[in-house]
Amino acid sequence: MSSLPKIFVAGATGLLGGRIVRALLDQDAPVRALVRPGAGEERKRALTALRADGLELVEGDITDPAERLAEAVGDATTVISAVQGGPEVIVDGQANLVRAAEKAGAQRFIPSDFAVDVTKLDDGDNFMIDWRRQAAAASAGTRLEVVSVLNGAFYEVMTGFMGLIDWEQGTLSHWGDPDQPLDLTSVADTAAYTAAVALDPAATGTLRFAGEVLSMRQFHDAVQRGSGRTLRLRHLGTADDLRAEITRRAALTQNPFDYVALQYQWCMVSGKGKFDTLDNARYPQVTPQPLTDFVRAAAPAL
Ligand SMILES: NC(=O)c1ccc[n+]([C@@H]2O[C@H](COP(=O)([O-])OP(=O)(O)OC[C@H]3O[C@@H](n4cnc5c(N)ncnc54)[C@H](OP(=O)(O)O)[C@@H]3O)[C@@H](O)[C@H]2O)c1
Predict the structure, then answer these.
(1) Does residue 39 have its Cβ closer than 6 Å to ligand 1?
(2) What is the CATH number of domain 7-150+186-208+275-282?
(3) How far is the CA of 241 from the centre of ligand 1 (A)?
(4) Alpha-carbon dihedral angle through residues 156, 160, 164, 169, given to the nearest 10 degrees
(5) From the CB of 162, is ligand 1 less than 6 Å away?
(6) Which of 113, 183, 198 is nearest to 149 (CA)?
(7) Is pLDDT at 300 greater than 70 in this prediction?
(8) Which InterPro entries does the record associate with it (predicted)?
(9) Phi first, then psi: what are they for 273, rounded to 5°?
(10) For the segment 15-60, what is each residue's pLDDT rounded down to a tens digit?
(11) 10 Å Cβ neighbour count for 193?
(12) What is the distance in A from the centroid of ligand 1 to the CA of 237?
C-alpha cells in the first residue's frame, strides 16, 4: 500500500486529466478519479484501461450538490481540477468543487488553469482565461491552499488547434515579432509537473513550467527538423494587427469560440502572458521533451 497521500482528479477522462492520473499512478500515488455518469464510453475505457491498484473511479459531476461531491472527494488530501467547459464549469463548478473539498477535509486545490501567465492578463484579453481569474476570485476565502500550475501552450495545440501549420500548403503562419519568446510544454510534461506539484506538500502559490521557451523562428526550425519537412514561414502581421483582427471577428460573430485561438495567440505573441520566471528546477525529476522530439514522434499523425 502506498504511503503517499490520496489525490482526487476531476476531469480525469480529459486530454490533460487522463495524463495527470497516469503521471500520479506512475509515482505510486493513490488516485480517486471523478467520472461523469454521462462520460463517453471511449473516454471511460481509456481511463479504466489504466486500472491499477491505486486507482479508484467515482461517479459524479463538479456541479453536483457539494454534500454529494464531498463524498466523492472522500479522504483525498489534494484535489486537482483538469475540467474544461464554460463558466458554469470553470467558475461555478470549480467554486462548488472547492466547497466540497473543504467539507471533505482536503487540504489543497489545484485549479484548471494550465495556461499562459493568467496573473498578467486583463479582462477581455482572453475570455476563457477571464473565467479562470473569476474562478480564483470566487474561491478567494477558502481555507484550502490553492496552487496554480501554468504551462504556457501545449505543443499539441501549437502544432494543431492553433491552425499555424498547413502541411498541405507547406506553410507555418504566425503573428507578431518572430523573435518574441513563447512558453511551450507538451501535455505529458504538464501532467508530470502537475503530479510533482500535487505530491509536493511545500508547493504554494503559482508555479510556472515550460518544456521549452522558443521564439516563433525557433519553433519553425524545430518543427522543420522534427518533421523533416520544409515549411515557409508566413508573417501575418504585428501583435497590434492581431488584436485588431480579433476585434473585427468579434463584431461578426455571437460565438467567441470562433476567435479564441487568436486570443490565445495574442496573449503569447504580444509577450503579455509570458512567464517572468520558471519553476522547472524545483522538480529535476521531470525532464521535459524538446519540441523537435515531440514533432518527430507525432509527425505521421500531424
Ligand atoms: N495551455 C494549453 O495550450 C491548453 C490547451 C488545452 C487545454 N488546456 C487546459 O487544460 C485543462 C484541461 O483541458 P483538456 O483539453 O484536457 O479538456 P478536455 O479534454 O475537454 O477534458 C475536459 C474534462 O472535464 C470534464 N468535465 C467537464 N465538465 C465537467 C463537470 N461538470 N463535472 C466533471 N467533469 C467535467 C470532462 O468530462 P467528460 O469526459 O465527461 O466530458 C473531461 O474529463 C483546461 O484548463 C484547459 O484550459 C490548456
Answers:
(1) yes
(2) 3.40.50.720
(3) 30
(4) 130
(5) no
(6) 113
(7) no
(8) NAD(P)-bd_dom_sf, NmrA-like, NmrA/Isoflavone_reductase-like
(9) -95, 15
(10) 999 999 999 999 999 999 999 997 666 766 676 666 567 899 999 9
(11) 28
(12) 31
